Amino acid sequence: MSLPPVLSFDLDDTLWPVAPVIAAAEHALTAWLAEHYPQAVRDHTLESMRALRNRVADRHPHLRHDLTFLRRSALVQQLTEAGYDDATADEALEVFFAVRNRVVFYEDVRPSLERLRARHRLFAVSNGNADLQRCGVAEYFEGHITARAAGAAKPDARIFSALLEKAGVSPAQILHVGDDPLADVAGARRAGMQAVWLNRDAREWPADLEPPARTVTSLAEL
User: Fold this and answer.
1) Are 11 and 42 in a shared domain?
2) Torsions phi, psi of 144, nearest 5?
3) Is the domain of 92 the same as that of 120?
């Protein structure tokens, strides 16, 4: 495989499995609220807190891409309804983020990024709200384009346009790598970029999408 000068990477489920880390962060948040602001969780479970975030998203459809806004807004509502100051939401959010950024990388990630950055410019493009510095891999990336900063989430063309602007290259000079067939592969191709599907767990490609030109099972295969 001949790689272009710029490589961009999805983060969640590409560099690390995301479900365990989100579950751990949500449990840590709930435990912290129970200890410090017990009335806020008296009538709540993890499921009801997720439902509350979904209702916030329904009220603000133009901000569905901003996961931090959704989580903070839901926390504000949850805390104020329990009689607490809404400023507490920022303290609670920090508890969540401290664990959310405690990721466990797939084994191939660090060695692959180390090799690739010697010959390519690396960028991260993510719909999530992970912090590269706190996750411990900021040194490998020249830039990080988030859905929140771009004002849109993959597969929307605006987040890929933000990548193009930051990298200062044409679409053909970027190869995007990610696990999501629609958000990563189809989204990048619609933006005129090359794309590789990272399929770590032998999933079936969606029948309604054009098959990927390239598929790898680990970053080492790049």
Assistant:
1) no
2) -135, 115
3) no
- CA distance linking residue 88 with residue 106, whole number of Å: 34
Residue in 130, 180, 186 with CA at minimum distance from that of residue 157: 186
pLDDT in tens, 37-70: 999 999 999 999 999 999 999 999 999 999 999 9
Domain interval for residue 143 = 6-16+105-221
Helix, strand or coil, per DSSP, at residue 211: coil
**Which token pair is 200?**
């770590």
- Its pTM surpasses 0.90: yes
Place of tokens 């993959």: 154
What pLDDT, in 10s, does the model give residues 171-197?
999 999 999 999 999 999 999 999 999
The helix (H) or strand (E) run that includes residue 93 is helix 88-100
- Find out whether the peptide bond into 155 is cis, omega within 30 degrees of 0: yes
Strands (E), 31-130: 121-126
Give me the count of residues in the chain: 222
Through-space distance between the first and last CA atoms of the chain, rounded to whole angstroms: 7
The answer to whether position 109 is within a domain reads: yes
